[in-house]
Amino acid sequence: MEEFVILLKYILLGALQGFTEPIPISSSGHLIIAQELFGLEMRADDFTFEILMNFASLLAVLLIYRKDLIRLVMNSLSYIQHRTVEGKSDFQFVIYLLIATIPAGIIGLLFEDVIAEFFKSSKTVAVALIVTGIALFFIRNLKGRKNDGDLTWKDAVIVGFAQAIALIPGISRSGATIVAAMGLGMKQETALRFSFLLFIPISLGLILVKIPDLALGDLWLPYLLAFLFSFGFSYFALKWFMNIMARGNLIYFTIYCLVVGFGFLIFG
């Protein structure tokens, strides 16, 4: 019975992590709330779960954006070798992704543990969710005019710092970067693509930094099931979120973040 409970706990956390990672409601914040509400507590040193769930979401993003990634790589290589006109904008897009990775990479490497410890309570997560909801409200109807080829290094830096702010549990990574991108005038499709392609280098960096802590041990089956559920739910959630964005229905996430945030502040 105890083994079944452990199995169920990891499946639930994997599904929760996977579903909330791509959409603008903060996966880290929801894990903290779930652990407090349902006693789904992870070990303090359970880096393996974090690495595997991150990797599962990364695979979902790679699968969905595989055509964009192949185009960016091929055109960038073509531009580097032959200075082709059609490859210039894609090459610049890749450079801007790398620039946008720097703020969160440096701040995360130096202060991630401090930030996670300082903001780990459900009350601070609730406040952060309210902030996320308000930010989404202000950009919900923005259309933007900037395509992939219209971005600048300043855009990349600002979106990069938005991603760094999302190190605070309750501040959604996708939400923060999309809010910043659309606030800078990017079209919804460009903002969405930049946000999720930006997830790739920061996620790879996290995996490389923490992979020495990977240890499956006797929890290999719970980890495996959590990984599979996280991948499946990440894929579904990102596809669903892309449809929500295309229809201009970000207000749903605003309402959700505000309801959960204020609800937990009042009753949590």
Q: How is the main sheet built?
A: none
| Strands, total number | 0
Average pLDDT score: 89
Domain module tally? 1
Strand content: under 5%
Helical element count? Answer: 11
Calculate the terminal CA-CA distance, rounded to whole Å.
30 Å
Structural class: mainly alpha
Shape: globular
- Please provide the ordered H/E string of secondary-structure elements: HHHHHHHHHHH
- Helical amount: over 70%
Work out the radius of gyration. 19 Å
- Which regions have little confidence, pLDDT < 50, spanning 5+ residues? none
Structure report:
It is a multi-pass membrane protein. It catalyses: di-trans,octa-cis-undecaprenyl diphosphate + H2O = di-trans,octa-cis-undecaprenyl phosphate + phosphate + H(+). Belongs to the UppP family. This protein has eleven helices and no strands. By secondary structure, it is mostly helical. It has one domain. It is globular.
